[in-house]
Specification:
Layout (H helix, E strand, L loop, with lengths): L1 H26 L10 H11 L2 H8 L4 H29 L3 H17 L6 H15 L5 H9 L5 H27 L4 H13 L1 H8 L42 H27 L4 H52 L4 H33 L5 H30 L1 H14 L9
Helix pairs in contact: 2-5, 2-8, 2-9, 3-6, 4-6, 4-14, 5-6, 5-9, 5-10, 8-12, 11-12, 11-14, 11-15, 12-13, 12-15, 14-15
Amino acid sequence: MKVLKGRPRKRKQATLKTLEKGRQMRHRPDPGRWFYSFVPFRASTGGAAPLIPLLTMSVGGGPADVGVVNAVGSTASMLGGLFWGKLSDRLNRRKAFLLAGFLGTAVTSILFALAENVPQVMLVNALYTFFIAATIPVPILIITKVFRLEDWDYAIGRFNEIGGWAWVAGMILGLAMAQILSLRGIFVVLGIIGLLSFPWGAKTIREVPLHLDRRILGVYTGYVVEKFRYLPNMITHLPRFSTGGFGRLYISTVLFWVGAMLYFTQFPVLLKSRGLGATELYVMSIANAAVSAYMYSRVGLRLRESGGYGALRRGLGLRGVAFLLLVLSGFTKGPLFLLLAFISYFIAGYTWSYISVSTSSIISHRAPPEKRGSLIGAYNLVSSLGAIIGNLTSGLVVEEFGFIPNFSLATAMVFAALLPILRER
């Protein structure tokens, strides 16, 4: 009887403990609350992404100038990643550099409205991408400190999802503003929106002093659209180059990024040459970004079936078909050209999810822990170099030979990127 009498008391104590734990969890601060401070920043940069090549052309630039502006931005971003990484390591502070990135990016976005010629656009874009570089690797580092190990994947995915859809929202906002404002006016409004991230971040981001451990800086895909890869700024320390069994993947990566930038750098120039402008470019960019955001988690689940290399080959193959459609569109006019260009850009967004997630999986999971940092750094370095080469080459090819040879070369480079990894399993 004593045992029977004790059971209700034990149940009551267990119930009270459960209720108390639930009450504490409800009042526990959300460790991911600061994710939303990136929303204005991502919306601002997303809305500005399609406008930079259009602004370059509006001040008298040609295809080569567009390529140089993008290449200079990529280089400044890469150097910015090195600068901010070393400085934040030395001071052992992270929050201050995120806030500097928010503020600097917003201010330089407004400065685009004052640019009167190509060199000024180039200078502002270099500053713009330099400040964006301050915001890239730090969020992942903070996540690994404020979340439990078993929650890392969910937290990183959630952070990327919030930022990704904010990017798409920024493009939709840019599309709406393109109907009533000039290019310069849109830059000013987007810069003001970006400023909101500064006070929001100052209030919600916690300072988490930590030493940069490159082993936890996985190859993560935090950016929805590939145009943001004009900013190869995940390089926080210049790596010692090492292939570590990924030599074929690195060769494929260089070929891919050269081809990708041949395509993306000159796509706005092609639309401009056909009498199209910001509205059409925004519509296509929104479709490109939205399908990428939608496919990220779905591709991650499919990797269990096809494996990293299988998904990568699928993405590269479909990407080659997308680029080929744009080549064919060069022989058409009117609505048919617009339709083929839209389908091409849409498929490019669809395939980006396959390419980015699969390369993340391959390197993050197959690299030995003691070599992971150097291998990730080498991957990002070859990606950056491929993007810079593609940017510079694209303008020269278009000015000397025209759009069809440029996009044909882009198609050939992407299909060539398949060759080194055909036998990889």
